[in-house]
Amino acid sequence: QVELVESGGDSVQAGGSLRLSCTASRHSYNGYCMGWFRQAPGKEREGVATRYTGESTSYYADSVKGRFTLAHDHGKNTLYLQMNNILPEDTAMYYCAAETPPCRPTMTDTKYTFWGQGTQVTVSS
Questions:
Q1: b/e map of 35-50 (b: 16 or more CB within 10 Å)?
Q2: Can you say how many angstroms the Cα of residue 101 is from the centroid of all Cα atoms in its chain?
Q3: Long-range contacts of 84-90 (CB under 8 A, 24+ apart)
Q4: Cα–Cα nearest to 34, from 77, 92, 93
Q5: How are beta strands 119-124 and 11-13 bridged, if at all?
Q6: Is 111 helix (H, G, I), strand (E, B) or coil?
Q7: Calpha distance 17→86 (Å, rounded)
Q8: Are strands 18-24 and 4-7 parallel, antiparallel or unpaired?
């Protein structure tokens, strides 16, 4: 069992920045597939960014490419989502997800077993 704890959500103005954090409760020698998802009111949950923690390649939704960046700190067992030039349409509850290997980084939420409780991002124009 892996517990994920997110933090960093806040209310910001459009054009601002935030950094979301997701800390896993235990280390995995083989790493995890981890991702950030978001769900806005009245909309389905969508993938934002994902990666395998043992590799440096990250994958992003088209809507956030060039604005959001994933980073992983192995020592802190934490996945970060750096959000720059935030837009009002980025307003959503953001969730961290993880899956143990064998896995592949994916934007499909059903491929992840472990989920955090969510952190709210609200963007005003």
A1: bbbbeeeeeeeebbbb
A2: 18
A3: 84/17, 85/15, 85/17, 86/12, 86/14, 86/15, 86/16, 86/17, 86/18, 86/121, 86/123, 87/14, 87/123, 88/14, 88/123, 88/124, 88/125, 89/40, 89/63, 89/123, 90/38, 90/64, 90/121, 90/123
A4: 77
A5: parallel
A6: helix
A7: 6
A8: antiparallel
Distance of CA 90 to the CA centre of its chain: 13
For 38-84, what is each residue's pLDDT tens digit?
999 999 999 999 999 988 899 999 999 999 999 999 999 999 999 99
Residue 14: exposure state from Cβ atoms within 10 A (0-12, 13-18, ≥19): middle
- What was the pLDDT predicted at 4? 97
* DSSP-based three-state secondary structure for 88: helix
CB 31 within 8 A of CB 101: yes
Which whole-number Å values give the CA distances from 7 to 2, 18, 30, 59, 93, in the listed order? Answer: 16, 11, 24, 21, 11
> What are the tokens at 86?
């935030």
